[in-house]
Amino acid sequence: LARLVWALSPIPSPPDDVMVQSLYSNIYHALNVQKEYPIEDIQAEIASWLMWRLWKNRNELVFNGKEYEAECILRKAREDAEEWKGRKVAEETAVKRLEVQQPTITNQANPWRPPPSNWVKCNSDSAWHNERDTSGLGWICRNETGEVLWAGARAVTKTGSAILAEAEALKWGAETLANFGYKNIIFETDSLQLAKMINGTEEVWPILHPTIELIRHHLLQIGSFEVRFYPRGGNKAADIIAKESITFVSSIPMLYSVVPMWLK
């Protein structure tokens, strides 16, 4: 049945028209077929969905005694691919719309404010540009007197959108401070949408779901925490760090317990 499904699919067979005995070689061929046939319209995105539907068909046969015809499996895979493509386009459109509407309050009426006694505050930010291959992540942790305890700067492969980079910056700060044993932390971000999704007051976008789940995991390790939106005017230090880190030639994360000269 599986061979018939692949034969009916728009995925070209290997050069000798015979699938080899190696499962991994066949999977590699299916997932990389667009590189071998870059000009032809081969609907390469359907390959992963065909494998998913074949796996589901196998489970239906083993556990429920049901088996679907090859044409039905192929049709379901096409429907899955189209649905995924539609969701991805809608999600990217929503991200772009958000980035246009994102609050950009930068006036001095919102300066950084220290945390309460026995708490620390971690501000995070990112630097993201369409024309660059890297994004910059930055975060800074200060105590109630404003003393810098830790700061992190890192260049990473460019994320799909600015809000993804914002989430990665906050995740890295939360992970680091949780590992360092801090217990009472206020996290501030100038991304209102991100703060709402972390706090559960707005539905998490599928593209952000894995990162936000990791953020929540690290927050639970900390114990007492808050995640807040704060205008960019109070997030300047993290903004400077992110913009500096995007210039790094290495992707090695940099941690500072002493304020670097470029941040003073």
UniProtKB/TrEMBL annotation:
<dbReference type="GO" id="GO:0003676">
    <property type="term" value="F:nucleic acid binding"/>
</dbReference>
<dbReference type="InterPro" id="IPR036397">
    <property type="entry name" value="RNaseH_sf"/>
</dbReference>
<feature type="domain" description="RNase H type-1">
    <location>
        <begin position="123"/>
        <end position="244"/>
    </location>
</feature>
<dbReference type="InterPro" id="IPR012337">
    <property type="entry name" value="RNaseH-like_sf"/>
</dbReference>
<dbReference type="InterPro" id="IPR044730">
    <property type="entry name" value="RNase_H-like_dom_plant"/>
</dbReference>
<dbReference type="GO" id="GO:0004523">
    <property type="term" value="F:RNA-DNA hybrid ribonuclease activity"/>
</dbReference>
<dbReference type="Pfam" id="PF13456">
    <property type="entry name" value="RVT_3"/>
</dbReference>
<dbReference type="InterPro" id="IPR052929">
    <property type="entry name" value="RNase_H-like_EbsB-rel"/>
</dbReference>
<protein>
    <recommendedName>
        <fullName>RNase H type-1 domain-containing protein</fullName>
    </recommendedName>
</protein>
<dbReference type="InterPro" id="IPR002156">
    <property type="entry name" value="RNaseH_domain"/>
</dbReference>
